[in-house]
TrEMBL record, chain A:
Designated name of the protein: small monomeric GTPase
Keyword Transport: yes
Homology family: Belongs to the small GTPase superfamily. Rab family.
Lineage of producing organism: Eukaryota, Metazoa, Spiralia, Lophotrochozoa, Annelida
PANTHER family for the chain: PTHR47978
UniProt catalytic activity: GTP + H2O = GDP + phosphate + H(+)
From TrEMBL, chain B:
Function: May act as a GTPase-activating protein for Rab family protein(s).
Gene Ontology terms, MF aspect: GTPase activator activity; small GTPase binding
PROSITE patterns: TBC_RABGAP (PS50086)
Pfam families according to UniProt: RabGAP-TBC
Source organism phylogeny: Eukaryota, Metazoa, Spiralia, Lophotrochozoa, Annelida
Name of the protein in question: Growth hormone-regulated TBC protein 1
Entry-linked Gene3D superfamilies: putative rabgap domain of human tbc1 domain family member 14 like domains, Ypt/Rab-GAP domain of gyp1p, domain 1, Ypt/Rab-GAP domain of gyp1p, domain 3
Alphabetically ordered keywords of this record: GTPase activation
Domain Rab-GAP TBC, residue spans: 64-256
Amino acid sequence: MANQGGAQRPNGPQSKICQFKLVLLGESAVGKSSLVLRFVKGQFHEYQESTIGAAFLTQTVCLDDTTVKFEIWDTAGQERYHSLAPMYYRGAQAAIVVYDITNQDTFGRAKTWVRELQRQASPNIVIALAGNKADLANKRMVEYEEAQAYAEENSLLFMETSAKTAMNVNDIFLAIAKKLPKNEQAGQQQSRQRGVDLSQENQPSGGCCK
Amino acid sequence: MATSNVDPYGFERTEDFDFESYEEFMKTYLSVLSRRASRWSSDLLMGSKKVSRSQKLKRFIRKGIPSEHRPTIWMQMSGAETRRQQNPNVYRQLLQEKHDPQLVETIKTDIPRTFPDNIYFQDTPSDPQCKRAPLFNVLVALGHKNPSIGYCQGLNFIAGLLLLIVKDEEKVFWLMDTLINNMLPDYYAPDMMGVKIDSEVLGDLVKVRDPQLYAFMESAGAAWSIVCTKWLICVFADVLPIETLLRVWDCLFYEGDKVIFRVGLTLLIHNRDKILRCQHFPQIMSTIKAIVMDEYSLNCHNFLQAIFKEPKRLSRAEIQKLRLHHRAQFSK
Ligand SMILES: Nc1nc2c(ncn2[C@@H]2O[C@H](COP(=O)(O)OP(=O)(O)OP(=O)(O)O)[C@@H](O)[C@H]2O)c(=O)[nH]1
Ligand SMILES: [Mg+2]
């Protein structure tokens, strides 16, 4: 997996390109795929197909002098797919653990994911907690304060998001990008193929680098 | 040919749908279809509805079952028809029994999330053609009858497609019951062991046939299960173009699970050069996502010939041996 923090771009002394592997985890139907679809394509589907196995997408964001390219693994949420998850979070520099604010069980499940990541993922992984479907505030079952307190205790980034209205979607990815180390050492142990010419790749549309 | 935004099975075509290649392919495929249909009536069925296993039938099935015969042949050849006849009324009874509320809840969540871009899966309960209610029934009855399996995401896509083709929900139920118990045991159980094992088996089969490709995938860190989990769980439903999928399923219901490996091997080995040109893992993933839908996979008649040629000899014994090996590895 080609992950490198801080490859120097040859044609711009100031601009670095960093590539990070990010994984989305959380119960089925909390909105993982919807968040990714919103972030990558700026779209929302009222009915989003259930994810089988995992889906892979990329998106690029610009941060000051750095271009951050996310390699996103959107995993399947059903419990029986759980045993496949380590394959996706192994070597990930960031994770978004998603729950649905209208469903208390999904918050419990999110906590389980956080614990698993803390124990099994890379020690420096940046974890964000996303309370999704914030547009359904009238059906809220998980209080903002409760989730925020939990996130603080566990040093997680935390935001309530809505893939439907786009609220905080770019923001949560940006917050992660900010928190990720962007120096030459970052993520080195995972980088199998250094020196890849990133400039050849198609830049996805809809990002801030248009 | 008139271009429509909906295909004959009710799927809305995406914006990037390649009408040109599709029409090019359909021009020849339509004549293949009509030739096959007349050969089936005049040389094979000759007025009868029942067929029995034979080299000739196998050959005919590999060249494609005409759509009017597809439901009957799938039912007969998979053994689902026998199950259905030996268990009259069972499906109706299963539906009437009291179901585990959690099973019902999980399935309910996935009904609107099954083929949302197909016109028969829209929220139109009064439309007799709407497949949402039959889909719910089939999945609930299946999970209720097979409590050790329950509901596994992915079954919704298989059942959904079967409903579009076979139409009769009781028949679809028995096809699904045969599939999960006889044809692909272990795939849908909570530990999904069958899927994990078969992913590794596919990798090993690649290794023997194309060591360079295997070594490349390994060095890129492309685990086989990352590549093929959805292929296996959905038996290529929601993966391959639909005409191709149906042709693969023709063989699946006659010959069994071996054809899954043939398809997987053909996709990977035929496209080896494209994969080998990739510079890193993400690019490999995008390439593989593209090849399952490209012209080669779309051209189902050639593709089906290729799956029986390209991967060379593939014996049940070879698969069995590898499965046993990986089962032992996983239980360590
Ligand atoms: N109101 C509202 N609905 C949402 C939001 N995000 C997702 N949904 C809906 O919730 C359902 C499930 O969303 P998905 O994105 O498929 O959920 P997922 O977490 O990827 O689920 P799995 O793939 O099964 O793990 C879809 O029908 C979405 O339209 C949101 O922010 N607000
Ligand atoms: Mg999803």
